[in-house]
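INTERNAL AUDIT FORM
Audit reference: QA-55
Scope: verify that the stored structure record matches its stored sequence.
Auditor: D.O.
Record contents follow.
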Amino acid sequence: MTDNTKKLIGYLKHDIKDIDAKLAEFQEDFTKDPAYALTWSDQTFTNAARKRVYSTVLDALTAPKSKATLASVKEHLQKQLMNDAKYPSKSTSAAHNLMHQAEVSAIATVLEHIEVYL
């Protein structure tokens, strides 16, 4: 594992820690007043999507016997991003579509970070 891979892993772990705190705050707000919390939940979609994408990248880079590199992860994410851009979610569930959009954004964000470390 290269030093730059380790730096990206550190960044992602740090960001996931921050995301977990924000999700916990939303959970508290939801417990107190679900309707109000959902009214202001747009950032929660972003946080949940980033956590999912960042965790997937972390798993790929840190799994035992993983042969993933920053370049291979970047290539995989670029293919996924292109596919998601060509075929956006058109579910009858508005929440599903919002989550898909947030995941596409999270993939683009993590690709930007990978570029910094390549």
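Auditor finding: record pair retrieved intact. The chain has a mean pLDDT of 95.
Action required: none
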